[in-house]
Amino acid sequence: PSSSPSSSSSAPLSPVILTQDELKKIAAYKAVEYVESNMVLGLGTGSTAKHAVARIAELLNQGKLHNIIGIPTSKITYDQAVSLGIPLSDLDSHPIVDLAIDGADEVDPFLNLVKGRGGSLLREKMVESSCRKFVVIVDESKMVKHLGGSGLAMPVEVVPFCWKFTAMRLKALFEDSGCVAKLRTLGENESGGVPYVTDNGNYIVDLYFKKDIGDLKVASDEILRLAGVVEHGMFIDMATTVIVAGELGVTVKDK
Ligand code: 5RP
To answer: Which of 162, 94, 138, 92 minimizes the C-alpha distance to 235?
Structure first.
């Protein structure tokens, strides 16, 4: 349940200062220890998940893993997995996923997540809500007290049709939290930039909050009730394990 605290364990890393990318890699490699032969695996998206995908390919090539089927959560992960020779399928053919490994943008103390700053939230949510075990891999900068409280984006995937209207309604939902709703764009020009288009042909409206958004399940239901919204980036009660790599060590938090 979203109100129960998680357990944790820790192992010290070396005294050398590690880069953020090295921490991401450490978390990713730790998560791949959960992978066993004959598994259907959800392959996440982003700069952390790509280390896990590369490690899975390496173990397959070394003959240490066999008969893995990957379900990619984005076109970019599909391309990476194909280039590394990981056998792939989809949810139509493999609706039950044994284990998914993915990064996150924010993790709260109850292991609820914000995902989708990389734009792949819909496919990620489809794959990760169909899995038996969902291991999230982050460096310690992603840990927050409240989702949406970091001042960074809470992404919502919306259909392009009248997206301004949908953005207006999203903003109105969170008026009390000082919400600002912005269309995600690729670069800026005089007319405001070209919209970022997801793998599913949709747009993303990023929500920014000045104050706590309150009960996450209520917020989730209210967002999903709006016509024009496809999915949002809150992943509530989905992670079964979060692996956090920090300067002081790797912490494994289990739900
Ligand atoms: C992509 C995601 C990513 O998992 C999330 O943005 C974290 O990315 P990174 O590992 O690059 O920090 O949700 O849609």
So the answer is: 138
